[in-house]
Write a structure and sequence with these properties.
Blueprint: E1 2-5, H1 7-13, H2 16-32, E2 35-36, E3 41-43, E4 49-57, E5 62-70, H3 74-78, E6 83-90, E7 97-102, H4 104-122, E8 129-134, H5 138-150, E9 153-159, H6 163-177, E10 181-183, E11 195-198, E12 217-220, H7 233-238, E13 239-243, H8 246-252, H9 254-262, E14 270-273, H10 274-278, E15 291-295, H11 300-317, E16 321-323
Parallel strand pairs: 1-7, 8-9, 8-11, 9-10, 11-12, 12-15, 13-14, 13-15
Antiparallel strand pairs: 1-16, 2-4, 3-4, 4-5, 5-6, 6-7
Helix pairs in contact: 2-4, 2-11, 4-5, 4-11, 8-9
């Protein structure tokens, strides 16, 4: 029997705190060598992009593959989303696919979760910190949710080019987190924050890195191609740079690829991977004056760990529909 979980099923069982816990374990496995993480495989049909993201976590006994497609004409031609994702979870003992689940909400939460884990290890540890969020979409919501779990916040500041979107974000997230959230009039007003998350679709830097105060931690989420970046060269130069994967950063992350091309830093500026920080192989923040950056590209180990969590919780709560395939 194969368990089928739709988006509503996934939402009903997936919590950010639990997701942060399993994502942290996944990165620990990656650093300890018990994870298998092949490169994502792209296929480009005439009208879109299809990505295949498999991984295996030995200690967590989690084996899965996420299939993500990007078809820009979907809304107009088929009234469907541009991005669609499904996860096929397998029993690592038999190889059988024991669950097929919607991957949209899963991806959103696991992306927020890794920033929460990075914040746990890299941000200053004092209480009553201020979070700054660039962007107001679903991922911006997930970033704030995770950061609010990782650190005790006194308030959050959000900036978006759309006032309407910012107002909607504040209304929803202030209620969800019981947190004061204020709208910034310009990017500079966000830079008073102690923890900054960038979750935009901008291909060019969204703030002046010279204006970031000492001691800030930054989670860079939005840009994910070699020629796009949310963070300028100045802030990269000023910061201790940690990535989810060195290979992914130098293949996909314009935030570090472009400063290297400019010659203002070299590849040695990449200080280490998040998993190595978690297991203590690489130091995190050295002092409260240091600026730290975590660059997230998105790894299949996050999807696999989260899918296994969702499956276990669905079985426990009798959620979803079993079918014979």
């Amino acid at each position: 029997m194969t368990l089928i979980l739709n988006r509503e099923n996934v939402i009903s069982v997936l919590d950010m705190k639990d997701c942060m816990d399993v994502v942290e374990k996944a990165f620990k496995e990656l650093a300890n060598g018990t994870a298998v993480l092949p490169l994502r495989t792209p296929i480009t049909p005439p009208d879109g992009l299809s990505l295949y993201m498999p991984a295996y976590l030995k200690e967590m006994k989690a084996l899965a593959c996420k299939v993500v497609t990007v078809y820009k004409n979907n809304p107009k031609k088929f009234n469907m989303p541009v991005v669609i994702g499904k996860v096929l979870l397998q029993d690592p003992e038999t190889g059988d696919v024991n669950c097929i689940m919607d991957g949209g909400y899963l991806t959103a939460v696991r992306t927020g979760a890794v920033s929460g884990v990075a914040t746990k290890y890299l941000a200053r540890k004092d209480k009553n910190q201020v979070a700054g969020i660039f962007g107001t979409g679903v991922q911006a919501q997930m970033q704030l949710w995770a950061v609010a779990i990782a650190r005790e916040l006194s308030k959050a500041i959000v900036y978006d080019i759309s006032d309407e979107s910012a107002d909607a974000f504040i209304k929803e997230m202030s209620k969800k987190l019981n947190l004061e959230i204020v709208k910034a009039k310009n990017p500079d007003e966000v830079l008073v924050a102690d923890i900054i998350c960038t979750a935009t679709s901008s291909a060019t830097p969204i703030f002046d890195g010279k204006k970031v105060k000492k001691g800030t931690h930054i989670n860079g989420i939005g840009s994910h191609t070699p020629n796009a970046r949310e963070l300028d060269s100045e802030i990269i130069m000023r910061s201790r740079f940690i990535g989810d994967s060195k290979e992914a950063c130098f293949s996909e992350a314009g935030d570090i690829i472009l400063p290297v091309k400019e010659g203002v830093i070299d590849e040695s500026h990449f200080y280490g991977e998040l998993g190595d920080v978690i297991i203590g192989k690489v130091e995190s923040r050295l002092n409260d004056e240091e600026i730290t950056i975590f660059k997230s590209n998105g790894l299949a180990i996050q999807d696999v760990a989260t899918a296994k969590l969702i499956y276990d919780k669905a079985i426990e709560s009798n959620t979803g529909v079993n079918i014979e395939i």
